[in-house]
């Protein structure tokens, strides 16, 4: 089975004679596809950069410590129903 799969793939990848004409537009389409692939990869990396960085961090405890030190606001308790003294009716 494996041998026949290898032979079939070699026959597809290494054709004998190809009587075909490749015009200059084909080359420019290939270059355009390569440029589009690079642009797509860079935009994808930009969008998911935070996830990439968090994947390579040592542990999640370090990330929690850094947010606490960065001055992120902590959740506050629910306020009471009584108005404050500063406001007058």
Tell me, rounded to a whole number, the average pLDDT.
Answer: 76
Helix content: 55-70%
Beta percentage is under 5%
- The value of Rg in angstroms is 30 Å
Largest sheet: none
Sequence stretches where pLDDT stays below 50 over 5 or more residues: none
Structural class designation: mainly alpha
Shape descriptor reads: flat
Number of helix segments?
Answer: 4
Number of strands: 0
Helix-strand topology string: HHHH
- C-alpha end-to-end distance: 88 Å
Walk me through what this model shows:
This protein is an all-alpha fold and 89 residues long. It has a domain at 29-57. 60% of the residues lie in helices and 0% in strands. The chain has four helices and no strands. The protein has helices at 2-13, 24-47, 49-55, 60-69. The N and C termini lie far apart (88 Å). The mean pLDDT is 76.
Label this structure with key terms:
single chain, 89 residues, mainly alpha, 0% strand, flat
